[in-house]
């Protein structure tokens, strides 16, 4: 009998029921908690008592909601920080968008390896030279694509429009081409190789000219070393003559005659020199540019 009464006797506990419930529940809540503050809130959850007993459902529910709210906030902060890092990385790694824009030099222009006044110069461009501008500027310098490399020139000497050049400036800016001409083999028949080169250099730069006279039996023409470039436009004649003068060494010229004036490489410092009147527009070279080679 004594043993049975001891089994029926209610078990004694040192801690109130609400506290025991919180302690039992704490391990479950800890798995979803992010900070120590949440655990403290769970442990300190109020144990409301009434005459009917302790209200555990309210305390545990409040604690669970705190855990969920805290977890959501931490995840949000992590995502935000991650987004900030991605945005920063994109901003730092962004490079200038290079373009291919046509520009013309308005003066003689140094091509540099870096955007600095003391940088090495690799070449000098003639006025009116067409270049490809990338749209990238650094200080007073603009970047151009030049012979497959990124180079720099002074930006103020680049223009969207081709500048109006003097005949001498235009002549210097043109190259010498040896491609076949429409005026072709009839003109070149009987000419020396050097004279053929002159014919092709002129016809490729001045396609508007269609009439040339080459070999014949008088004067310098009888040697096959002279060509007459026939034209009626004085401005065009000036351009042709200045082109020939600018490339005299490359074309191995002996003389250029136009509008009763003569120019020779050996006396180039004297410029154009007057010639005596020969009696007609053709004899005085008003309707054509005469050129001969060595």
Care to describe what's here?
By secondary structure, the protein is α+β, with helices and mostly antiparallel strands. The chain has 9 helices and 15 strands. The chain folds into 3 domains: about 80 residues; about 60 residues, Roll (SH3 type barrels); about 120 residues, no CATH class. The strands form 4 sheets. The protein has a 6-stranded antiparallel sheet. Helix 2 packs antiparallel against helix 3. The radius of gyration is 47 Å and the shape is elongated. The N terminus is likely disordered.
Helix-strand blueprint:
Layout lengths: L1 H7 L8 H14 L5 H8 L5 E2 L2 E2 L1 H38 L7 E5 L3 E4 L8 E5 L4 E9 L2 E6 L2 E6 L3 E2 L7 H7 L10 H5 L4 H13 L6 E2 L12 E5 L3 H13 L1 H4 L1 E5 L3 E3 L9 E2 L13 E6 L1
Helix pairs in contact: 2-3, 2-4, 5-8
InterPro entries: ARB_07466-like_C, SH3-like_bac-type
Keywords: Membrane, Transmembrane, Transmembrane helix
Protein name: SH3b domain-containing protein
Briefly say what this structure is.
The protein has 294 residues and is an alpha+beta fold. Strand 4 and strand 5 form a beta hairpin. It is elongated, with a radius of gyration of 47 Å.
Sheet with the most strands: spatial strand order: 10-11-15-12-13-14
Distance between the termini: 146 Å
H-E string: HHHEEHEEEEEEEHHHEEHHEEEE
Overall pLDDT confidence: 79
Q: Treating each run of at least 4 consecutive H or I residues as one helix, how many helices?
A: 9
What Rg is obtained from the alpha carbons, in whole angstroms? 47 Å
Determine the fraction of residues in helical runs and give it as a percent range: 25-40%
- Give the structural class: alpha+beta
Number of domains: 3
| DSSP summary, beta strand count | 15
Give the overall shape, derived from the CA principal axes: elongated
Major sheet summary line: 6 strands, antiparallel
Low-confidence stretches: 1-7, 17-45, 47-53
Our estimate of the beta-strand percent is 15-25%
């Amino acid at each position: 009998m004594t043993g049975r009464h001891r089994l029926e006797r209610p078990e004694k506990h040192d801690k109130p029921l609400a506290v025991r419930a919180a302690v039992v529940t704490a391990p479950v809540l800890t798995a979803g908690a992010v900070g120590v503050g949440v655990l403290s809130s769970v442990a300190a959850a109020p144990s409301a008592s009434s005459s009917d007993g302790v209200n555990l459902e309210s305390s545990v529910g409040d604690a669970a909601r705190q855990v969920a709210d805290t977890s959501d906030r931490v995840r949000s902060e992590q995502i935000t920080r991650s987004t900030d890092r991605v945005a920063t990385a994109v901003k730092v790694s962004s490079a200038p968008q290079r373009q291919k824009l046509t520009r013309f030099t308005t003066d003689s222009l140094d091509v540099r390896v870096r955007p600095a006044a003391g940088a090495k110069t690799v070449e000098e461009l003639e006025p009116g030279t067409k270049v490809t501008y990338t749209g990238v500027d650094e200080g007073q310098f603009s970047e151009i694509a030049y012979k497959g490399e990124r180079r720099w020139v002074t930006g103020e000497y680049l223009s969207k429009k081709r500048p109006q050049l003097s005949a001498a400036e235009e002549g210097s800016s043109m190259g010498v081409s040896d491609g076949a001409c429409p005026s072709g083999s009839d003109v070149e028949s009987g000419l020396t190789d050097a004279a053929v080169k002159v014919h092709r250099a002129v016809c490729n730069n001045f396609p508007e000219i269609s009439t040339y006279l080459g070999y014949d039996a008088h004067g310098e023409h009888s040697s096959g070393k002279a060509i007459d470039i026939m034209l009626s436009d004085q401005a065009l004649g000036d351009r042709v003559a200045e082109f020939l003068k600018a490339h005299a060494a490359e074309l191995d010229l002996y003389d250029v005659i136009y509008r009763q004036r003569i120019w020779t490489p050996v006396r180039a410092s004297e410029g154009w020199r007057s010639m005596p009147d020969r009696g007609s527009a053709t004899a005085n070279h008003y309707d054509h540019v005469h050129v001969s080679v060595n």
